C-alpha cells in the first residue's frame, strides 16, 4: 500500500510544473505559478538555513530551497529546449517515438539514469514546450519512466534484507504490470479512435494529467491483488532453510543518515534481543520442570544469539552516535546502551540456570517437593517480571514500568525466604551439600535477573520523565522504597499473595 501511494505522490511534481502554463487575469491564481513561487521558496529557505540555529528549521529551509531551485531549473530547461524545434534531427526523433516500444524504452533509460521519475517527467514536460512531441509518444515514455523509477529501489535492495528485496520486487511488478495493461488498453482504444487528441501535441498539462491517471488507475486496479503481488515476490525470492540460520540482527546502515529511523530500527532489534533473553529464562524453567529437554549445545546456541544481538546493536548505536542527534535522540541512544548491558546479563544468568539444571540431570540431583514448589513460585515470578519489563520497554509504558519495582521487591523477599529455608534444611541434614549448591545457584541467578529487569524499568521511567528535571535512577529508586505509594503497595500485595502461597 505504501509503495502504491508513493507512486501517486510522485506525480505532484509534474502537476506543479504544469501550473507554469496558467494564464489568468487574477493575480491570486498566477501567484501559484512556479515562476512566482520558486524565488519566494528559495528566499525563505536560505534565511532559515543561514540565520535560524535550529536543526528543525534548517531542514525546512533545505526543503523549501530545494523546491525552489528544482522549478527554477525546470523553467530554464524549458526555455533552453525551445531551439530544438528548428533541428531536423529532433523532428525525426519525435517521429520515431511514435513507436510505443521505443517510447517505453526511452522512458526507462532516462529515468534509470536520473534515478528520479519526477525529474524525468519534468524533462519530458520541458521537451513538450517545443510543440513537436505528440501525446501518444509522451504516454509511452511516461509508462517507461514509471518502470525505470524502480531502479532506485532495486539498487537500494542490493545487500539489504530479504524483506527489502521483496519490497523492491513488488514495486517493479506493480509498474510493469500496470504499464502492460495501459499499453494494451490505450492502443486498442486509439486504434478505434476513442481517445480525443491522441495524435495531437503533448503539453505540460496533459502530460501531468496522464501521469496522475496512470498511477491512480493502476493503484485502483492492483490494490485488490496486493496479496498476489506479495505471493509472486515470495516465489521469486523464496526463503530457504539456510536463511533461517543467518544472523538474527538486521540493521540497515542506509538508515544511519536518518537518525530517527535508525534509532527506531535499533529499538526493534533491542526488543527482539529482549524476547530472546525471555525465551532463555523460560527455557531454564521448562527444563527444570521436565517440560522440555535441551542439550548443552542448544542452550549455548540461545546464549550465542543473545551475544550476537548485543555485539551488532552496540556497534550500530555507536555509528548512530556519530550522526547529528537532537536531545531526545541522544537520551534514547545513551539509555539503549544501558539496556543492552542489562539484557545481556539477563541472558547470562538464564544460561547459568540452564547449565545448573543440566548439571542436576547429569548428577541425578533432585530437590524435595517443598523446595521445588517454592523454587517454581520464584521462577514464575521472574518469568512474569521479564514479560512485564519487555512490554514496558517496547511500548514505553510508564504504568507497567512502575509495576516492575514492587514485583522485583517480592522476588528479593522470595530469595531471602528460600535461602533461610534452605539453611534450615542443611542444619537438619534434610539435603546434601551438592543439592544445596545447585539450589542456591538457581535462586541467586533468578534474583540477579530481577535486578536487571528493575534497571530496565527505571530506564523506561527516565525516558518518559520531564527532561528539564535531572533523573537520578538510584535516588528515584530509594525514594520509591522509602515512600511507598498506595499504587506501589497494591501491586506488591498482589504479587506477594500470588507467589508465597
Please tally the β strands and state the result: 0
Q: Please give the count of helices.
A: 21
Structural class: mainly alpha
Q: Terminal Cα separation, in Å? A: 53 Å
Summed over residues and divided by their number, the pLDDT gives a mean of: 85
Q: Any low-confidence stretches, pLDDT <50, length ≥5?
A: 241-248
Helix content: over 70%
Please indicate the percent range of residues in DSSP E strands (runs of 2 or more).
under 5%
Run of helices and strands:
HHHHHHHHHHHHHHHHHHHHH
- Gyration radius (Cα, Å) is 33 Å
How would you sum up the major sheet?
none
Shape: elongated
Characterization of this structure:
By secondary structure, the protein is mostly helical. It is 77% helix and 0% strand. It has helices spanning 2-9, 12-18, 27-30, 34-51, 55-81, 88-96, 100-114, 117-128, 135-148, 150-157, 162-191, 204-222, 226-236, 259-288, 296-321, 327-363, 369-395, 398-427, 433-463, 473-482, 486-499. It is elongated, with a radius of gyration of 33 Å. Mean pLDDT is 85; it is low at 241-248.
Please describe the topology of this protein.
Layout lengths: L1 H8 L2 H7 L8 H4 L3 H18 L3 H27 L6 H9 L3 H15 L2 H12 L6 H14 L1 H8 L4 H30 L12 H19 L3 H11 L22 H30 L7 H26 L5 H37 L5 H27 L2 H30 L5 H31 L9 H10 L3 H14 L2
Amino acid at each position: 500500500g505504501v509503495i502504491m501511494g508513493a507512486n501517486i505522490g510522485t506525480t505532484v511534481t509534474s502537476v506543479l510544473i504544469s501550473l507554469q502554463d496558467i494564464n489568468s487575469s487574477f493575480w491570486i491564481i498566477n501567484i501559484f505559478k512556479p515562476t512566482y513561487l520558486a524565488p519566494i521558496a528559495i528566499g525563505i529557505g536560505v534565511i532559515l538555513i543561514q540565520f535560524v540555529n535550529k536543526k528543525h528549521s534548517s531542514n525546512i529551509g533545505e526543503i523549501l530551497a530545494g523546491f525552489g531551485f528544482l522549478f527554477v531549473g525546470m523553467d530554464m530547461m524549458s526555455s533552453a529546449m525551445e531551439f530544438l524545434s528548428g533541428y531536423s534531427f529532433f523532428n525525426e526523433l519525435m517521429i520515431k517515438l511514435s513507436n510505443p516500444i521505443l517510447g517505453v524504452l526511452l522512458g526507462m533509460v532516462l529515468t534509470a539514469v536520473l534515478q528520479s521519475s519526477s525529474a524525468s517527467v519534468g524533462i519530458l514536460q520541458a521537451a513538450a514546450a517545443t510543440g513537436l512531441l505528440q501525446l501518444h509518444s509522451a504516454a509511452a515514455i511516461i509508462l517507461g519512466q514509471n518502470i525505470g523509477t524502480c531502479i532506485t529501489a532495486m539498487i537500494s535492495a542490493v545487500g539489504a534484507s530479504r524483506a527489502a528485496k521483496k519490497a523492491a520486487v513488488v514495486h517493479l511488478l506493480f509498474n510493469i504490470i500496470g504499464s502492460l495493461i495501459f499499453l494494451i488498453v490505450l492502443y486498442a482504444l486509439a486504434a478505434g479512435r476513442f481517445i480525443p487528441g491522441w495524435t495531437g501535441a503533448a503539453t505540460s498539462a496533459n502530460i501531468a494529467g496522464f501521469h496522475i491517471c496512470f498511477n491512480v488507475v493502476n493503484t485502483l486496479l492492483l490494490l485488490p491483488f496486493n496479496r498476489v503481488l506479495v505471493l509472486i515476490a515470495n516465489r521469486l525470492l523464496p526463503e530457504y532453510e539456510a536463511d533461517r540460520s543467518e544472523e538474527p540482527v538486521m540493521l540497515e546502515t542506509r538508515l544511519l543518515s536518518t537518525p530517527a529511523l535508525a534509532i527506531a530500527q535499533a529499538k526493534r532489534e533491542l526488543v527482539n534481543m529482549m524476547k530472546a533473553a525471555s525465551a532463555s529464562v523460560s527455557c531454564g524453567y521448562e527444563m527444570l520442570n521436565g517440560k522440555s529437554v535441551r542439550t548443552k549445545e542448544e542452550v549455548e546456541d540461545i546464549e550465542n544469539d543473545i551475544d550476537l544481538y548485543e555485539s551488532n546493536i552496540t556497534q550500530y548505536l555507536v555509528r548512530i552516535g556519530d550522526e547529528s542527534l537532537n536531545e531526545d535522540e541522544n537520551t534514547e541512544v545513551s539509555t539503549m546502551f544501558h539496556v543492552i548491558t542489562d539484557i545481556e546479563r539477563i541472558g547470562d544468568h538464564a544460561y547459568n540456570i540452564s547449565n545448573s539444571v543440566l548439571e542436576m540431570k547429569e548428577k541425578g540431583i533432585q530437590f524435595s517437593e517443598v523446595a521445588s514448589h517454592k523454587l517454581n513460585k520464584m521462577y514464575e515470578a521472574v518469568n512474569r517480571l521479564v514479560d512485564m519489563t519487555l512490554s514496558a520497554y517496547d511500548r514505553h509504558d510508564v504504568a507497567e514500568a512502575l509495576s516492575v519495582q514492587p514485583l522485583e521487591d517480592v522476588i528479593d523477599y522470595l530469595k531471602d525466604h528460600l535461602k533461610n529455608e534452605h539453611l534450615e534444611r542443611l542444619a537438619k541434614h534434610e539435603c546434601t551439600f551438592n543439592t544445596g549448591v545447585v539450589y542456591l545457584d538457581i535462586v541467586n541467578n533468578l534474583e540477579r535477573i530481577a535486578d536487571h529487569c528493575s534497571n530496565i524499568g527505571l530506564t523506561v521511567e527516565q525516558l518518559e520523565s520531564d527532561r528539564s528535571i535531572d533523573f537520578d535512577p538510584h535516588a528515584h529508586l530509594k525514594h520509591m522504597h522509602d515512600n511507598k505509594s498506595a499504587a506501589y503497595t497494591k501491586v506488591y500485595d498482589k504479587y506477594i499473595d500470588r507467589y508465597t502461597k
